[in-house]
Design a protein that fits this description.
Structural class: alpha/beta
Radius of gyration: 22 Å
Strand order of the largest sheet: 3-5-4
Shape: elongated
Order of helices and strands: EHEHEHEEHHHHHEEE
Oligomer: single chain
Length: 246
């Protein structure tokens, strides 16, 4: 991708083990021979929202100094589930229920990207183990007096009972995002669902198949799409031409 990479680490100074996180960041930078900026917050408040705002402000300053146009973070699928549910519990409207955007503006000329948002944490940890990369675990994650940690613990208990929980929450956030930010795509998705519902055997077609059809319609493509075994939906030049049963 011909990227020029550097690392930024913000030491919040809110717990005694914060220096260990800093050591991990320095080790990663040394391993990959990347420049790194370490910034300590002065008198950091014990408030997650304010800490986040100050952290992003500091990182944006580092990005400007480095001439970087994108800041990438390692937020993952479980982070997204927690964010969506916390917004729901706060009574947030549709905008809040969209969760974290894969990409958004951080500051003028700088974007915030979350390239790992669809990956489960276990997969990222497995990668670190396989590659021998160090990582840090925040001990305050075990403190259920913090609201996000309480939500995290509840989700951990639910995942064995609801396989695919995080994928389902991410999908719901994605759909709500389309409703609020891309109404034309949302309307197209509704039309596809309505057409499929005309066939009794296609009322329960899964999200993945519907999205494949929506993308084909948006791009003006032609082709056959298998909705289920033996049932094809035919698309010609960006329009549904019919349904064929084998």
């Amino acid at each position: 991708m011909e990227l020029s990479l550097s690392i930024a680490h913000v030491n919040h100074g809110t717990r005694r083990s914060a220096w260990q996180d800093e050591c991990v960041a320095l080790r990663i930078a040394a391993t990959f021979e990347l420049p790194i900026d370490v910034v300590a917050l002065d008198a950091a408040p014990d408030n997650e929202s304010e800490l986040r705002n100050r952290r992003y402000a500091v990182i944006a300053d580092v990005a400007r100094r480095r001439g970087a146009s994108v800041v990438a973070t390692a937020h993952h699928a479980e982070d997204q589930s927690e964010t969506v549910l916390m917004a729901l519990f706060r009574g947030a409207g549709p905008e809040g229920l969209t969760g974290m955007a894969p990409r958004r503006s951080l500051a003028e000329g700088i974007e915030l990207a979350r390239p790992l948002l669809r990956f489960p944490a276990a997969e990222l940890l497995a990668y670190c183990h396989a590659e021998g990369l160090p990582y840090a675990v925040d001990p305050t994650n075990a403190d259920d007096d913090r609201r996000r940690n309480a939500v995290r613990s509840a989700l951990d208990a639910l995942r064995p009972l609801f396989p695919g929980l995080d994928e389902a929450v991410a999908r719901a956030a994605h759909l709500i995002g389309d409703e609020t930010r891309e109404p034309e795509r949302a309307e197209l998705r509704r039309r596809v669902r309505e057409r499929l519902a005309q066939e009794d055997t296609l009322r329960d077609v899964d999200f993945t198949h519907v999205e494949a059809v929506v993308r084909a319609l948006e791009s003006g493509s032609s082709g056959s799409f298998y909705m289920k075994a033996g049932i094809r939906l035919e698309i010609e030049h960006g329009a549904i031409a019919g349904i064929t049963k084998a």
